[in-house]
């Protein structure tokens, strides 16, 4: 019964998402468009055996996960709150957790499709080498799952920040863009100013990018990282910490109706 409730809500959320063409294009197509543009323009070698395209693609995979988990939920939930959808959910006998379970299942489903599309484009058109061993596939899996979980919880938590549905996109999108620029998506991370690296190291995206670089880039590139290694233990620790922090903020701050309209 419990599993069936979550499954049904997940299906409802997925249907609602796919019916919004703007959301589908922005969430699913944006990272692919960015790969096609940047990878077609920049092809210089940034380290022995590593070109810019390889580096950028790993960052865009992480960005795709952030877009699906953080950005989409932080915009979608305020819209539903303003429309009274959350208030109606709260007034039904349905347990509150089912709503969140539906969001999680939606994000998981879209995240799998997004990563599959990004890998297909990158491997098919830009010669990205897939993970070369079972260990790298395992790293790819846990970095993606932990990163997506952290972004999902942070997206739900951040959904309480916009004052209303109209301001949601204007509030959330700049945050996501700034994180991309300072986290080593568009530029080699160690080329950024030291203070920018320190700020980026607070947030999940930097660690998601670093974890994914360990999967798709040669081991020799680890020496280019700030610590001279992939720091996978630290990647897991910080992403896990953000999952806990995001959950704690969700519990304390989530509201079912617009607190500014009371």
Automatic annotation (TrEMBL):
GO terms for cellular component: ATP-binding cassette (ABC) transporter complex. One of its GO terms (biological process) is response to antibiotic. Residues 22-257 form the ABC transmembrane type-2 domain. InterPro entries: ABC2_TM, ABC2_TM_bact-type, ABC_2_transport, Nod_factor_ABC_transporter. One of its GO terms (molecular function) is ABC-type transporter activity. It is a multi-pass membrane protein. It comes from the Bacteria. PROSITE patterns: ABC_TM2. It is found in: Cell membrane; Membrane. Keywords: Antibiotic resistance, Cell membrane, Membrane, Transmembrane, Transmembrane helix, Transport. This is Transport permease protein.
